[in-house]
Amino acid sequence: MPADHCSLYNGALQERRDAYRHSSKRSTRYGDQSAQPKDLANKAESAGRRAIPVDARNTSRTCPRGLVENADRVSALNVLHRAGLVLCAEA
Fold it and tell me: Looking at the record's lineage, which domain of life comes first (predicted)?
C-alpha cells in the first residue's frame, strides 16, 4: 500500500513546495485550501487510485517510538498509518 500512495504524496508535496517558492503566493486563502482535497481526489481518480481523507493535524510532531527522521518523512509515515486505519475500519 505505501508504494501505491508514494507518487500521490510526492506530487502533493511538490505542489506545496512550488506554492511556497512562488513569491506572490506566500499565504493560502481558505477557498484555495478547501479545494485541495477535491483536487487531490480528482488526481487520484484519474490515476486509477483512491484518495483517503485523514486528519493531518500533528502528523509531523508525532514520531513513532525511537524514530529520528526528517519532519516531512515522519508526517508521510503518520498519514500512511492513518490511511491504513481508515481502510481497516471500512473492511
Answer: Bacteria
Report which residue type is found at 68: V
Between CA 11 and CA 31 the distance in angstroms is 20
Residue with grid cell 525511537, as numbered in its chain: 66
Q: How many CB atoms lie within 10 A of CB 38?
A: 10
68, 37 in Cβ contact below 8 A?
A: no
Instruction: 19-22: list long-range contacts, CB under 8 Å, 24+ apart.
Output: none
Q: What pLDDT digit, counting tens, does each position of 50-91 carry?
A: 888 888 788 888 877 778 888 888 888 888 888 887 778 786
Distance between CA atoms of residues 25 and 18, nearest Å = 10
In this prediction the pTM is 0.52
